[in-house]
């Protein structure tokens, strides 16, 4: 016999397991909020911009061939900027207590699309240190790229600065809580349907017809034995009082 699940059965399952769904969703939200606010370390971000050209020459400023060459070299500049040749000097100049690999993980170097502008972004738990590292990387690169690739026309377009009300870029508690709410809700609903699927007990006449494929001829009503006993004692007391009054 082909089994079908109606929308009514689905809604009944959800209503029956609603407390479980709410509990799991609430737990996910509370855990996510607690971890976001009290466990994860806030990370701040600061960026600086550089304009990198080839060596100065007497050619026109807007030389298409030169600009195309510069664009092709941007990836090379990005790699050099995160190389030990640059980062070792940054660590020494700032007196940082970290390795080149550790500093490399804090720095992101990207070039604007089809341009010679390079963005240097640094993330650190301290917003002032993030700005300091970003500016120092740009400064060391501007000085050393002359010897490395004979590029003497590096301009710093914008230095990294720390605003008055600097806010961390991660974690994002509200986003984490929203994600936890959705995940918790999905997990709760999934668990509710799983428990319903594993529950093979027969509870209603419809279950008998569906599982045994037999018609229901009759049913026995349930009654509360304690309530029935209380009613019997009440009736006996009333009868006794009636007999006393009659005598």
From TrEMBL:
Residues 3-94 form the Polysaccharide chain length determinant N-terminal domain. The lineage of its organism: Bacteria, Bacillati, Bacillota, Bacilli, Bacillales. This is Capsular biosynthesis protein. The chain crosses the membrane at residues 20-44, 174-195. One of its GO terms (cellular component) is plasma membrane. It comes from Lederbergia citrea. Its main location: membrane. Belongs to the CpsC/CapA family. Signal peptide: none annotated. Keywords: Cell membrane, Membrane, Transmembrane, Transmembrane helix. It holds the Pfam family GNVR. The keyword Iron does not apply. It is a multi-pass membrane protein. It is found in: Cell membrane. Coiled coil: none annotated. One of its GO terms (molecular function) is protein tyrosine kinase activity. Residues 228-247 are annotated as: Disordered. InterPro entries: Bact_polysacc_biosynth/exp, GNVR, LPS_length_determ_N, P-loop_NTPase. Residues 140-194 form the Tyrosine-protein kinase G-rich domain. The keyword Transmembrane applies. PANTHER family: FERRIC ENTEROBACTIN TRANSPORT PROTEIN FEPE, TYROSINE-PROTEIN KINASE.
């Amino acid at each position: 016999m082909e089994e079908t699940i109606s929308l009514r059965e689905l809604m009944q399952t959800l209503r029956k397991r609603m407390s479980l769904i709410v509990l799991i969703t609430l737990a996910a939200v509370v855990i996510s909020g607690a971890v976001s606010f009290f466990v994860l370390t806030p990370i701040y971000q600061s960026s600086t911009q550089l304009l990198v050209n080839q060596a100065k020459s007497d050619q026109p400023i807007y030389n298409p061939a030169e600009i195309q060459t510069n664009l092709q070299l941007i990836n090379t500049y990005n790699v050099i900027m995160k190389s030990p040749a640059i980062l070792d000097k940054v660590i020494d100049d700032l007196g940082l207590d970290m390795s080149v690999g550790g500093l490399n993980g804090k720095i992101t170097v990207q070039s604007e699309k089809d341009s010679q502008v390079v963005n240097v972004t640094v993330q650190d738990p301290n917003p002032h240190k993030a700005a300091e590292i970003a500016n120092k990387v740009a400064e060391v690169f501007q000085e050393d790229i002359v010897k490395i690739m004979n590029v003497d026309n590096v301009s710093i377009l914008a230095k990294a600065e720390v605003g008055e009300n600097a806010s961390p870029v991660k974690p994002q508690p509200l986003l984490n809580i929203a994600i936890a709410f959705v995940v918790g809700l999905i997990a709760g609903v999934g668990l509710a349907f799983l428990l319903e699927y594993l529950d093979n007990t027969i509870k209603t006449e419809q279950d008998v017809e569906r599982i045994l494929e037999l018609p229901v001829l009759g049913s026995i009503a349930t009654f509360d034995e304690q309530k029935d006993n209380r009613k019997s004692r009440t009736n006996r007391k009333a009868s006794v009082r009636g007999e006393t009054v009659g005598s």
